[in-house]
Design a protein that fits this description.
The chain is α/β, with parallel strands linked by helices and 346 residues long. The chain has helices spanning 3-8, 29-38, 41-45, 48-62, 75-79, 111-114, 116-128, 142-151, 159-167, 169-192, 210-231, 248-254, 268-275, 287-292, 294-308, 327-343; strands at 66-68, 84-87, 91-94, 134-140, 197-202, 237-241, 259-261, 280-285, 313-317. α8 (142-151) packs across α9, α9 (159-167) packs across α10 (169-192) and α15 (294-308) packs parallel to α16. The chain binds coproporphyrinogen I.
Length: 346
C-alpha cells in the first residue's frame, strides 16, 4: 500500500509520509509559467490538462507522497450559481449573499456539470501520478465556504457571516445544510473519479465559540464524513479544523475522520498524548519556517519528527505554503524529513 494511505490507516512509518498544503502554486517558477498561459486562475482550475500538470509539478520536483488535486474550495460556490472571480493581489471575490432571500439564487441544477473538469483532472491523474503517490481530493468545509459566500471574499473578522448566524440561525442553517449536501456529493464524485483520500479544509473554524463551533463547523463536517463513508467506507478523510485549539480533541473523537491536520499553534506534546491515540496526525510546521529555512526550519522540523513520529503521522505544514517560499528550502526540508527519520530506530 502507498505510504500516505498506510499512515492514514493508522500505521507508523519511518520516515513518515510527507506532502504540503498548497504545494502547487506561485512559489514555483514552473507554476507561474503554466499559469500565465492559462489566462485566469479559474481557467487553470477548469482546464484538466493544465490542472493535472500543476498538480504534478511539486511531486516531480520534490518527491512528495501526496498529490493534491489542483483546484480551489470556492468552485463549489460557483457551481451553485454564485458569481466568482479572482483579482490579482486581492484574492477571491464573489457576488455576496446578503439575506435569506439571496439563498433562492443558489441552485444545484448544474452542480456536477460545472465541476466536471475537476473530475476529469482526477481521472487524468490516475494515469500520471507516480505509483507510490496518493491522489488527494478536497473540499472546503461548509462554514469556511459559507463565509466567503456571505462576505463576498476574504475577511478579517467574518462579522457579516457571524451576525447572520446569530440573528437568523434558521436561514444560516439552510445554507450550511445545502453545503453539507453538495459537498458530500462532490467528495463522493471525486473518489469515483480517482481520489484515494480526501481533505476537508475548515480554514476559519477557529473563529467560533464552543457551541457555534460544534454547530457550524464540527457537526456539518461530521455529517459529510459520514456521507463519504456511506459510499466509500475505506476512503480516509483528513479534517483540518484550523484554529480549533482544545476543541481539536472533540474533532478527534467525534468527527469520524481518520486524520486531523493540525495548525501550527497546536502544542506537540498535547497532540501526541491526547489526539494521536484516536487519529493519524498531520502537520504542523509553521509555513514561515519554510520561508526562513536554515536553523529555524531544521530545529522545528526535528522537534516535530521527534514528538510525533512514534504514532501515526504525516509530515505537513500548519497551513498553506507561502508564495515567497524559496523552492530550495522545500528540497532541504524533504532531506531533513527523509534523512533524519531514516536513521531513527523503527
Ligand atoms: O494563481 C494563483 O496563485 C492563485 C492563488 C491560489 C492557488 C494556487 C488560490 C486562490 N487557490 C489556489 C489553489 C488551492 N486552494 C489549492 C490547490 C492545491 C494545493 O494545495 O496545492 C487548495 C487545496 C486550495 C484551498 C483553499 N482556497 C483554501 C483552504 C486552505 C487554506 O489555505 O486555508 C482557502 C481558504 C481558499 C480560498 C483562496 N483561494 C485562493 C486564495 C488566495 C485563497 C485564500 C484567500 C484568503 O486568505 O481568504
Amino acid at each position: 500500500m502507498k505510504p500516505l494511505l498506510q499512515a492514514l490507516k493508522g500505521n507508523i512509518l519511518s520516515p513518515p509520509p510527507v506532502w504540503f498544503m498548497r504545494q502547487a502554486g506561485r512559489y514555483l517558477p514552473e507554476y507561474r509559467e503554466v499559469r500565465s498561459r492559462a489566462g485566469s486562475f479559474l481557467d487553470l482550475c477548469k482546464t484538466p490538462e493544465l490542472a493535472e500538470k500543476v498538480t504534478l509539478q511539486p511531486v516531480h520536483r520534490f518527491g512528495m507522497d501526496g498529490a493534491i488535486l489542483f483546484s480551489d474550495i470556492l468552485v463549489v460556490a460557483e457551481a451553485l450559481g454564485q458569481k466568482l472571480w479572482f483579482e490579482e493581489g486581492t484574492g477571491p471575490r464573489l457576488e455576496a449573499l446578503d439575506s435569506a432571500d439571496d439563498l433562492n439564487r443558489l441552485t444545484t441544477r448544474h452542480f456536477h456539470e460545472h465541476l466536471h473538469p475537476v473530475y476529469q483532472t482526477l481521472e487524468r491523474l490516475q494515469e500520471s501520478v507516480p505509483a507510490t503517490v496518493t491522489r488527494i481530493g478536497f473540499a472546503g468545509a461548509p462554514w469556511t465556504v459559507a463565509s466567503y459566500m456571505i462576505e463576498g471574499g476574504s475577511s478579517r473578522d467574518f462579522l457579516k457571516s457571524r451576525l447572520w448566524a446569530y440573528r437568523d440561525p434558521n436561514s444560516f442553517a439552510r445554507l450550511i445544510e445545502l453545503l453539507v449536501d453538495v459537498t458530500s456529493d462532490y467528495l463522493v464524485h471525486q473518489v469515483s473519479a480517482g481520489a484515494e483520500a480526501v481533505q476537508l479544509f475548515d480554514s476559519w473554524a477557529g473563529i467560533w465559540p464552543e457551541a457555534e463551533f460544534r454547530r457550524w463547523s464540527l457537526e456539518p463536517c461530521r455529517r459529510i464524513i459520514e456521507r463519504v463513508h456511506e459510499s466509500y467506507p475505506e476512503v480516509p478523510v483528513i479534517y483540518f479544523p484550523r484554529g480549533a485549539g482544545v476543541l481539536y480533541e472533540a474533532c478527534a473523537v467525534e468527527s469520524g475522520a481518520q486524520a486531523l491536520s493540525l495548525d501550527s499553534s497546536v502544542p506537540l506534546r498535547w497532540a501526541r498524548d491526547v489526539l494521536q491515540p484516536h487519529v493519524t496526525l498531520q502537520g504542523n510546521l509553521d509555513p514561515a519556517c519554510l520561508v526562513a529555512g536554515g536553523r529555524a526550519m531544521e530545529s522545528a522540523a526535528e522537534s516535530l519528527l521527534r514528538m510525533l513520529d512514534e504514532g501515526p503521522f504525516i509530515f505537513n505544514l500548519g497551513h498553506g505554503i507561502d508564495k515567497t517560499t524559496p523552492p530550495e528550502h522545500v528540497t532541504e526540508l524533504m532531506e531533513i524529513i527523509r534523512g533524519k527519520s531514516a536513521q531513527a530506530p523503527t
